[in-house]
Write a structure and sequence with these properties.
Chain lengths: 244, 244
């Protein structure tokens, strides 16, 4: 039997998604619970990795099992045994050809920036505090320049396993609250390693006036990683949704 | 010299405000930093205690010091040395007759309820997850019944040091988002021990239909602690503001 999971997690305590021998990870934690429940060795395939400290509203994963437990009992057991920073939102039987990683058509990431005068302590694990004023119109203009199919090499961290850096961006925009919140949203057919955090780092430079829109466009066109600015911190990033 | 502090904190890690010998508390942590900076024994007087796990947007406190450090240097040193879950929002010289506890005229508390279908992991330290549907109109009606001067004995936890339980409630209402957030706000000239958490526990019963508005009003009038329902958990509570 193949099952598909929809999972939310608070990444604060974890060294990212991918299993590691010596450090707590989201994949490793869920696999441990699955093995306890099914009494089998289980490999959980996620839609992709998230970095240490990155959160997820809607990570998707699948696994195989020969367990005799019903779907409902399996879901209840998982919900009961998972730590409270990993939440099983849904468990469904998946068709045999479903693959959480290779089947994903689009992903949506959100990035939260807190642009207030002081670092609100409750937000510190879930946003990037940018103190200097941000020009939201410039940022929105700059984000719109990311739409469509292009080579995102300038925003890829070296060591990426991707064969090429051409991706199609379907959504790149921001919503701002009068109080100082910015939510940046990106939807694409795939993301390179650290791509969202590099994009956010760059567009915040634009918002601060440290880059003009022309410079920003030149960075995008350059396909040169050394041109991009510093990467935004992990804790503001949320994997929102994976579309199959 | 007397200084007045405006402080925000994430109460997750602390055994409340009040200094304890063996456990981390907010008062103890700030006093420790003040002593390091001023090289004096310092007693910090807060506007009042907060329970373990309760947060603050705007706690107010004062202390005396003979330090030669300027106000600006003192503020910078505090900001640099406080842990990142305690934030100094403001430091000002206070007039000699200012007293953070006895001078407070009103306080505002916010309580956040997350009424969604599943327990969002990022909210778990900052809200109470109530899964069953809540009738927000009934809740708003019930809250309005708290306004004015009355005896809040029914919502006081035993062991309270207060001489009497008569308080004046200036604000008691809620704001709801379509997504499932409820923010309950209470402003009064003073609060009894666990009063907000007891009020929230009761009004959620009303929202769930477990108490009618008549029963709720009877509980208020009863002045009998044993009549009130269970207390709402600490992590949804925020001391919003203290007014002098």
């Amino acid at each position: 039997m193949k099952y598909r999971l929809l999972i939310a997690y608070d990444g604060t305590r974890y060294q990212g998604w991918q299993r590691q021998a010596q450090a707590p990870t989201v994949q490793g934690t869920i696999e441990g619970v699955l093995e306890k429940v099914t009494r089998e060795a289980v490999t959980l395939i996620g839609s992709g990795r998230t970095d240490a400290g990155v959160h997820a509203w809607g990570q998707v994963a699948h696994f195989h099992t020969a367990t005799a437990l019903s779907q409902e009992r399996l879901a209840k057991a998982l919900q009961a045994l998972l730590p409270d920073d990993i939440v099983l939102r849904d468990l469904t039987e998946a068709p045999p050809d479903f693959h959480a990683r290779f089947g994903s058509r689009r992903k949506t990431y959100d990035y939260y920036v807190w642009n207030g005068a002081w670092p609100v302590p409750f937000f510190r694990g879930y946003s990037w505090w940018v103190r200097s004023p941000l020009d939201r119109c410039l940022m929105a203009d700059g984000l719109a320049g990311l739409l469509g199919e292009r080579d995102f090499s300038a925003f890829q961290t070296s060591g990426s396993r991707a064969a090429h850096a051409i991706r199609t961006m379907f959504q790149a925009g921001l919503v701002a609250s009068p109080r100082g919140w910015l939510r940046l949203r990106f939807q694409a057919d795939g993301f390179l390693r650290h791509m969202v955090r590099n994009l956010v780092g760059g567009i915040v430079r634009v918002g601060q006036g440290r880059w003009s829109l022309e410079e920003w466009r030149a960075v995008i066109e350059s396909r040169d990683r050394s041109r991009a600015g510093e990467m935004a911190p992990a804790q503001g990033l949320f994997l929102r949704k994976v579309i199959y």
